[in-house]
Amino acid sequence: MRKRLIVPAVVAALSLTGFVPASAATVATAHQGGTVAAAQSGTVATAAAAKCKALKSLSTLNIRKKATTKSTILGTWPKKAKGCDISGTLGGTYKNTCGIAKYNGWRKVNYRGTVGYVPNVCVVYV
């Protein structure tokens, strides 16, 4: 009985911290004959967590739809919270952000299921 509860609990905890997208949590909840069944695609939630490069925000950030300060805000990322790095990109210039006068590098991130862009100078790897 305990084995059945461990995997969903771990995936749920990782999902809440932003390390696994919320949709991946459903993979671990499908049980078949007392064992966890893999999704039809053949991947399991632990594979998604292994690909995550953990980031921590240096200040409260707006997560934007595109790599520009004029883009739609999809959500916020609180200071010192952890999320996942997806990729880096150059984009619109931002000024006076996280103590940097002017810069144009952005990170595509996943914070608790919200995927978007934040200023590169405002996050660090953990």
Give a description of the structure.
There is one protein chain. Helix content is 21%, strand content 44%. The chain has 126 residues and is α+β, with helices and mostly antiparallel strands. It folds into two domains: 2-51, no CATH class; 54-125, SH3 Domains (SH3 type barrels, Roll). The strands form three sheets. It has a five-stranded antiparallel beta sheet with strand order 8-7-6-3-9, with no helix packed on it. The chain has a two-stranded antiparallel ribbon with strand order 1-2. The protein is globular, with a radius of gyration of 17 Å. Mean pLDDT is 73; it is low at 10-17 and 19-47.
Describe the secondary-structure layout.
Layout: H1 2-17, H2 25-29, E1 31-32, E2 35-36, H3 45-50, E3 53-57, E4 61-64, E5 73-77, E6 82-97, E7 100-111, E8 114-119, E9 123-125
Antiparallel strand pairs: 1-2, 3-6, 3-9, 4-5, 6-7, 7-8
Briefly note the CATH topology name of the largest domain: SH3 type barrels
Question: How many discrete domains?
Answer: 2
Roughly how many Å apart are the termini? 35 Å
Number of helices: 3
